[in-house]
Amino acid sequence: MASPVEITLALAGLAALYIVIRRGAWRPRGLGWNHPSRSAAPRALPAQSLSLFIALAAALFGAQILGGVAGLALLQALAPPDTHDTVALAGAAALGAYLLGTLAAAFGWIALRRVLHANRASPNSELQTGLAIFPAGREPSIRALLKSAAWVLLAAIPLCTLASILTIQLARAAGISPPDELAHETLRVLVDAWLGGTAHTSTSQRLWSIVIALGAIVGAPVVEELIFRMGIQSGALAFCKRPAVAVALSTAIFVLVHVGPGTFAAAPDAAAPLQAQPAAQQAQPAGVFWTALPALAVLGWILGVTYERTRSVFVPILVHMGFNAVNLAGAVLLTAAGNSGPGTP
User: Fold this and answer.
1) What is the DSSP string of 290-313?
2) I want to staple 343 with a disulfide (CB 3.0 to 4.6 A). Which of 1, 62, 246, 291 is the partner?
3) How far is the C-alpha of 245 from the C-alpha of 266, rounded, in Å?
4) Which stretch of 13-17, 24-28, 70-74 has the lowest confidence by average pLDDT?
5) Rg of the chain, C-alpha, whole Å
6) For the chain, what is the mean pLDDT?
7) Which 8-state DSSP code applies to residue 181?
8) How far apart are the first and last CA of the chain?
9) pTM of the model
């Protein structure tokens, strides 16, 4: 039986869904901001740019892995062995992955701009390639950038929540008991570090948890959006010339990378702090439970459509940052209130 909170959130999601469908904002074509112009046609990317975008995605993915390994190696080399707990290890890996990943993303974006715009055929070439800073059809200002991201975020949060609620309700109707635990392992670690109590959480663990939170809110959106939207999605568009197919492909890969060995496993005991649980559960790979996969698919589609409509990767980056921040804040508040929420992704 759905709780009053779930019913309220579901109604908000249905209202957002109606508005999105009514305005045609779900289609990855044109600007979508009531600004019809010469840029309203889908992005036109030359086929030879396919290798450039895929190379960017591969380089950023590799930099993220290398940074995570380096972070773990430095922690194990410099810190005493008794401090190598789950939170510290996750924090060191996140710090290394997102520091190196963000640095590589900045250099990759600059390098790609120089390569693709060495011989600019028209003033709109930045919009066509999706390398523009500011959204197409808007004045070049930080205010316009934030306004575009805010409108998308306002729709993304209730739509993703609706997907989570429907997934859980359908599972219950089919006789499947979905985990009541937070759907993302990172959220579980953070909530436990902040709400688990001083008996189980040290000052070091709380500091590392802040590092993990900053990585989730800032580092992950920057690196992931350049990998999935600018890299994979643009590469797919250069290959197939169909925006919807490109968005669908980037969304599918976005969901798949969040699937791990723990996705379909039983949820850990929500009542026991992380450090008090068996080592096998502490070592569960970071990822999401299956209840969050539909919400991730909705989020991936929204981010992909936003990228195609605005022609700026900075808009989906801001949306992703806001979504992760709201998700984390909601997880903490709902857990503190005794309710982990409707399958928080």
Assistant:
1) GGGHHHHHHHHHHHHHHHHHH-BT
2) 291
3) 34
4) 24-28
5) 21
6) 80
7) S
8) 20
9) 0.86
